[in-house]
Design brief:
This protein is α+β, with helices and mostly antiparallel strands and 441 residues long. It is 50% helix and 8% strand.
């Protein structure tokens, strides 16, 4: 029986040094202490087959666990077997009994550990598995899953009308099973034989809807009317906080989630800058947006609408938290009359912007970018920087590091002037919103 040389106190008190060192506990068991403070147990032994020295990593565990593992290895050696081979066989046996749910959990933990995807993307994979894939696939052994299993699950999703989620679910399954292949949990990835078009779930055509100057003018007027008028049926009552957030979307071309979560500490109004931190940017890259005079006026107005010291656009339902990005989507939908009942429509009532071609809150970002090119003649590569897009060409991304700061600043300030004088104010060539709405009825 091995002699235990280390006390619990000595194990716990072992401090890191400039170089790795070991402390023997006897019987082939040793504690390795690394410069970073990590403590790992190793068991050294001679293989029964050829009597050559070998070792087995027990891991970063407590002293009692390490000694128990050493005793188990000694028992295996007495029976004439190699502890490392026995451990490998046991692991292979566990892998063969791995369910799809267990495989997903291992893959999800891997994504979190590697930190190569955004937290949001990882959460979306988890939500997709939980809502659409787990019930049909979770209990199946990963090594037994077939194309038929996957196809039936994706067919059911597509029949329920969730085309985009069906396409993304196939991506989730592919990445998850690829992970299983590289870790030898499964022999092959049956999802690789499936394509989105097999389920009529190919990517939709890129959206091209944008609002021209006249339409943006009507939207601006609708926002102002909705934040001040009574809900008398001809107009829609909106929170001034949400209205100001939409106006910032028009002025900056930023994403709705970026505006919704805007913090006062990100703003330098004296320098006319909004410094979007990397943690809040979609591509993980910090971004500077220059603020026009009108944008700064709106932000100053926000100071009088809430007392929140952190968020610019505070939620009325959940004080001390920012507005939800989906609230901005609902603003546009309400202005378009998406929530009007049949009764109200029969009474001759309509959404303020119901006469316009359908558009979404994301189309506002496209509208700003289009206007920068059409009205300001801003170069496409500058617009891409203003949108904080990553270059599609990897070589360009690596070698082209120019930020075009002055060009971006000039474009944002010039766009602010256009919004101030042609959108926020009523130029002669724009049809008043009331007349446009009356003509559409």
């Amino acid at each position: 029986m091995a002699v235990n040389k280390l006390s619990v106190r000595e194990f716990e008190a072992a401090k890191p040094k400039a170089k790795r060192y070991q402390l023997s506990d006897g019987g082939g068991l040793a504690l390795w202490v690394y410069p970073n403070g990590k403590k790992v147990w190793l068991y050294r032994y001679r293989r029964p087959s050829d009597r050559k020295g070998d070792y087995l990593t027990i891991g970063a565990v407590g002293i009692k666990h390490a000694r128990s593992a050493r005793d188990e290895c000694e028992a295996i050696l007495r029976e004439g077997f190699d502890p490392k081979q026995v451990k490998a066989a046991k692991k292979a046996g566990n892998a063969s009994a791995l369910t799809m749910q267990a495989l997903f959990e291992l893959w999800h933990a891997h994504l979190v550990f590697c930190n190569e995807l955004t937290e949001k993307t990882i959460q979306q994979h988890a939500q997709r598995w939980r809502l659409h894939l787990y019930r049909a696939l979770g209990a199946i052994l990963a090594q037994d899953v077939t194309r038929a299993h996957l196809a039936q699950t994706l067919d059911a999703m597509r029949k329920s009308g969730i085309k985009e989620e069906t396409r993304k679910a196939l991506t989730t399954l592919n990445q998850m099973l690829d992970y299983g292949v590289t870790r030898h949990f499964v022999e092959s990835n049956p999802a690789r034989m499936l394509r989105p078009k097999d389920f009529s779930a190919s990517s939709s055509k890129p959206k091209d809807r944008y609002l021209n100057i006249e339409e943006l003018r009507m939207l601006w007027l609708a926002l102002e009317e909705s934040s001040s008028a009574e809900d008398n049926g001809a107009s829609v009552k909106m929170s001034p906080v949400l209205v100001n957030a939409i106006k910032l979307l028009i002025l900056t071309g930023a994403r709705r989630v970026e505006v919704a979560g805007m913090k006062w500490q990100e703003l330098n109004l004296r320098a006319s800058k909004w410094l979007l931190p990397a943690a809040r940017a979609k591509n993980g890259k910090a971004h500077t947006i220059y603020l026009s005079e009108l944008a700064k006026e709106i932000l100053e107005t926000q100071r009088t609408l809430n007392l929140n010291q952190e968020y610019v656009f505070e939620s009325q339902q959940k004080p001390e938290l920012p507005i939800n990005k989906d609230s901005l989507t609902k603003v546009i939908e309400r202005l378009r009359g998406c929530y009007l009942s049949d009764k109200r429509r029969n009474e001759g009532l309509s959404g303020v912007l119901e006469h316009l071609a359908p558009f979404s809150v994301h189309d506002i970002r496209r509208s700003a970018a289009t206007a920068w090119g059409d009205y300001l003649k801003t170069e496409p590569h500058v617009i891409e920087r203003m949108l904080n897009h990553q270059p599609m060409n990897k070589l360009v991304a690596v070698y082209q590091r120019a930020a075009y700061v002055e060009e971006q600043k000039a474009a944002w300030l010039a766009w602010g002037e256009i919004v101030a004088h042609r959108i926020a104010k009523d130029p002669d060539n724009v049809t008043p919103i009331a007349a446009a709405r009356k003509a559409a009825l």
